[in-house]
Amino acid sequence: KAGVTQTPRYLIKTRGQQVTLSCSPISGHRSVSWYQQTPGQGLQFLFEYFSETQRNKGNFPGRFSGRQFSNSRSEMNVSTLELGDSALYLCASSEGTGGPVRETQYFGPGTRLLVL
Amino acid sequence: SQQGEEDPQALSIQEGENATMNCSYKTSINNLQWYRQNSGRGLVHLILIRSNEREKHSGRLRVTLDTSKKSSSLLITASRAADTASYFCATQPWAGTASKLTFGTGTRLQVTL
Questions:
Q1: Could you read off the pLDDT of A70-116 as tens digits, one per residue?
Q2: Residue A67's pLDDT is what?
Q3: What is the pLDDT at residue A72?
Q4: CB distance A94–B88 less than 8 Å?
Q5: Residues A54/A58/A59/A64 CA torsion (nearest 10 deg)
Q6: Residue B96's closest CA among A99, A79, A73, A40?
Q7: pLDDT tens per residue, range B67-96
Q8: Do B31 and B51 contact (CB within 8 A), yes or no?
Q9: Is residue B88 packed enough to be buried (19+ CB in 10 Å), middle (13-18) or exposed (0-12)?
Q10: Residue A103: closest C-alpha in chain B
């Protein structure tokens, strides 16, 4: 099976702009989670979507949002970008229905966002 | 916020030596997982240990879990240069949902020839 793919891989934006990142999960996986990785805060959970519904949410402001489509592909959007949003954004997919194998999350290569 | 700490923050060893890294966490968990990350790229899943398990092996990897101390350790035996990477532990707080992994701070492992 093909792995998790994320597009674009690199992105440069300026403060105040918005950005949309895309994630295609492994075929058959219904859960997609998003994480932000920065040198200062490390890896932090943003949110998870399962069957087009947000199932879990981390402690991020409302500028961070996401959605999931019927084919399980997911997008996350960050509006009114701030310098501190510069980070590696990682998407992970899993079957999402419990059990030790299904609980394993498979990560994509990430989108590196730079806000100037 | 992060679940806990990993130590050491950085570890440098020679090829063939064993590498041990430790992870501590704060809340009760359903399982603990270890991931590897090469140079700021995506995370690769290494091993998952359930809260009712104490030890697990996978190839050159050995993971232990002590829920009474809220700690885990990852042992990589006979390290290779290709093992050079950052290693993260991540905890999942409850059963039934596959998400919301809470990551540790990571250990940077350097394996030299």
A1: 999 999 999 999 999 999 999 999 887 766 666 788 999 999 999 99
A2: 97
A3: 95
A4: no
A5: -50
A6: A99
A7: 999 999 999 999 999 999 999 999 987 655
A8: yes
A9: buried
A10: B98
Whole-angstrom distance between the N-terminal and C-terminal Cα of chain A? 37
B7-66 residues touching A, CB cutoff 8 A:
30-31, 33, 35, 40-45, 48, 50
Contact call for A43 and B2, based on CB within 8 A = yes
Q: Is A60 on the interface with B (CB under 8 A)?
A: no
Helix (H, G, I), strand (E, B) or coil at B69: coil
Within its chain, how far is the Cα of B53 from the centroid? 15
* Residue B82 main-chain phi, psi, to 5 deg: -70, -10
Say if the Cβ atoms of B99 and A94 lie within 8 Å: yes
Give residue-wise pLDDT tens across range A7-53: 999 999 999 999 999 999 999 999 999 999 999 899 999 999 999 99
**Closest C-alpha to B58, from B49, B66, B50:** B49
Q: Scanning every residue of chain B, which has its alpha carbon at the shortest distance from the alpha carbon of A48?
A: B99
